[in-house]
Design brief:
Mean pLDDT of chain B: 88
Number of strands of chain B: 20
Largest sheet of chain A: 4 strands, antiparallel
Helix content of chain A: 55-70%
Number of domains of chain B: 2
Structural class of chain A: alpha+beta
CATH superfamily of the largest domain in chain A: MetI-like
Strand content of chain A: 5-15%
Oligomer: heterodimer
Radius of gyration of chain B: 25 Å
Strand order of the largest sheet of chain B: 6-7-8-3-9-10
Shape of chain A: globular
Largest interface: A-B, 43 and 48 residues
Structural class of chain B: alpha+beta
Distance between the termini of chain A: 51 Å
Shape of chain B: elongated
Order of helices and strands of chain B: HEEEHEEEHHHEHEHEEHHEEEEEEEEHEE
Distance between the termini of chain B: 30 Å
Radius of gyration of chain A: 31 Å
CATH topology of the largest domain in chain B: Rossmann fold
Amino acid sequence: MSSTDALGPNVSADSRIKPKLGSDDWIMRGYMIVLAVYLVVALALPLYAMLSKAFETSRFDLAQFEVQVSDESGAFNQPAATLKQLNDKSNFVAEGDLATSSDGRLALTNFFPDFSFRSPVKYRLRGLDDNAVYLVGSERFAGTKPAEFDSNTFRKVVIRPIQSHGLANFATYFSTPALFQSIQNSVFIALVSTVITVTLAFGFAYALCRSCMPFKGVFRIIAMAPILVPSLLPGIALVYLFGNQGFLKQFLMGESIYGPIGIVVGSVFFTFPHAMIIILIALSISDARLYEAAVSLRASKWRTFWTVTIPGARYGLISAAFVVFNLVITDFGLPKVIGGQYNMLAVDIYKQVIGQQNFQMGAVVSVVLLIPALIAYVVDRLVQRKQVALLSARSVVYQPKPSRRFDLSCLAYCALVALFIISILGICQYAALVKFWPYDLSLGLSNYDFDRMDGGGWAAYRNSIMLGLMTAVIGTVIVFTGAYMVEKTKGFTRGRASFQFLAMLPMAIPGMVLGLAYIFFFNNPANPLNFIYGTMAILVICTVTHFYTVSHLTAVTALKQIDGEFEPVAASLKQPFYRLFSRVTVPVCLPAILDIMIYLFVNAMTTVSAVVFLYSSKTTLASVAVLNMDDAGDIAPAAAMGMMIFYTNVAARLVHAVVSRYVLGKTQGWRQR
Amino acid sequence: MGQASTAETYLKIENVWKAFGDFYALKDISLEVRRSEFVCFLGPSGCGKTTLLRAIAGLDIQTTGSVFQDGQDISALPPSERDFGIVFQSYALFPNLTVEKNIAFGLENSGIARPDIEKRVAELLELVGLPEQAKKYPAQLSGGQQQRIALARAIAMSPGLLLLDEPLSALDAKVRVHLRHEVKDLQRKLGVTTIMVTHDQEEALAMADRIVVMNHGVIEQVGSPTDVYREPVSLFVADFIGETNQLDCEAGMKGKGIRVGKQTLASAPHTHTDGQQVIAVIRPEDIIPHGDGARSTGAPEEISEPGNTVETTVDEMEFLGSFWRTRLSSPDLGTGQIVADFSVNAVRRMEIQVGGRMRIEIPSQRLKVFAATAEPEK
């Protein structure tokens, strides 16, 4: 045996074995790079475009141009003067008005108060540097070449601003109280909704998990129903209940539903299932032995609750709180429908972009909205990691014992919550069927005649189903194969880590921000991918990207449960990885794959936020139609369309359940001994 | 040994190092494995045995050094371009495929006609003794059956090299002992060169033609089971394999003995200078009982090395079925106890009992002397 002292130097760079990559390695790495490029194009580059837009400022630089004016005979006797000199003298254009948007134009006639287009006076214009750009009509000129214009042409001459980067947009944002106020509003609404939702959801989950009440399965299904509708649907229901013509209006005692109250109630509705399921999982993994210990130590029920139950579920509670906070603060549909004059960040983006065409300010609000979303995301990720650690501990499942009084109160509580959820959905369905609220309450299907309304008609509904199916199929393929590459590629650590980062990023990006980023990136004529703007393709790409992270995590979890030694075995049997993938990995992961599909489908059906910027007249969507019909005052058809989405998702869920059962029976026979 | 050493080398490992960051899991490993040989890598967890196996398979390629298989340099090849079958502790059977599909996984898609595949699968199932289980799923089989299916799958394509990574560790004791023989029989029948990683010394002793004892990323000793058991080259090997008595003592008799307490004992030859602190090692079963000469009724057994006897007191006796484990102490040997295993017959004949006195003989050739440091590598 040789001495072991000389270990370090022995491993010099030149004697290192360079492992030869097999064909599998090449294919896997190549494919992973393809997917990474996809994520870069669908996520990183648009976000970058959005960020740079937020910091981009446009300003007319008057020192860039000089003008010489002739006398009436056309002779240029006067010396030339820069626009700056002219403006300094007479202040034709106020300093503040020199800041503009990237589309800004400034007519030169502003600087010549005695200008008349009938005058024989001529104007000689010269740019003083290469960046000086001006338009004559719509024709663009740049550079330092002088040009002469007669008066009639001169009135069509406008100069263009120069672009630079800075915080000027943010300065404008924070000095505009109407915009600035939204931060406070959004945070306030999100906080209040979070407290209410988490409290309600905890009670509900606690009853499901710790009581022996009947109908648990039914309650669970009802609690999950809000996931199947767009977030703006509860807004429509609230309008019917408490709006100006609502039959429960007097319950608000003079307060208006349009504003914080409506947003909070609607937010509680649509975030409830998310919080409930997280807390339910946290409660169901807590260890029964701790309760036995508490009983043996004669701890009171109250004390046990605070020392065992709450600490055991704390990660679930924290996680639920941040998820709800994030959902509420980034939601756009609900405050749009019921927010009234109450400004929220996500709606501000929409107003800036769609209403005022001020893209830069939209980008600025997006950046502001990113901050709380990112914080909530990071905290949630940290907490999730701890929760996983708790999960792996070997614990005994808690079995509740019947207690008549406790079970009955749980039943009453859950029934109340279920009633709230059902009545929101029910009122929408009722309103959709009523002919003319509140004057003619007879029922009919006239509100389903979508083709007679704005918003896209039945075509929008068909488009939505198309989007849902394409997102489900394409998204699942991309997500699952991507997760497989991340999990099973050997070596290539840096590549896998970057891919993993890209895959986790979408969760932190609010839909509005993503949609706006897509405008900046794909609507740029210089972008070779410009052609997909306005097509179904961009909607599919956007939706897949928007909901990438949760699907990715589902796939990764399923793949992690597969024996890591399958790949070595397949390699030793000289089988390419794709044969193992198709023969073993996919069949074993089929339940998870189906879950990803239904998740993508349901979300594609209900999402509004990202796609609202991206649909075209040919690709209107049902969820957007709900928004637009509501905006146009066709509230009943909006409710009808919203309920169509609901029923479609219910049907999809049923299909998913049937297919899952069939597939499980067919391909997962090995699961039972 | 003589016959084996003339057999050709099938696998050759030359100066292999494996670094994980600053940690070296393998330090300059060189080893030759002969064709048709069954070699065990034996050592405690973290000794590098699995790392070495994975380097041979190409699953975690070594940092430096070469691996030759059948004369071909395979150092940098990916697993798919090497020639081996592998069985893992987890079996790694594909759960959604039936037993026959599992075994046929490598055969399909390799240009073999379907009837031939079916024939081969039936043959393999016969070979591992599970001909009736073809249509079952892995989860419907016991652990031992699953491991046999994994073995059948690994040898389905007649690989030149069979790698077994702790194949029996997940099984319960009885099945494990039974499967040892089956695996060994199968290996002998097929004549496939086999490397098995294990931390179970009994398994290694029972199955291997040669054992490679590893510790801290180096090979401590390579030898036949009897070699490593009877002639350990280091304190680690002596300690890791089997039971040992370790006596703290001084070297003496110019490399031919030791001084312990007041006594001088002859030992196997060693290289330590007189007076140096050393550790002498003797196995419990090597100690020869001579009873209490005064009370013994039968004729006293002949003492072959009169100088290597010690008068002791019996402190404790433990009946372990086929033999008695006794703990002896002697003021001559200092404070420690000596463990000796005596046959049931000897104990009865010599009336050995707790509290009694007895003379033991320590055969000098079985008394091995090692340096006093815990680490044999300096």
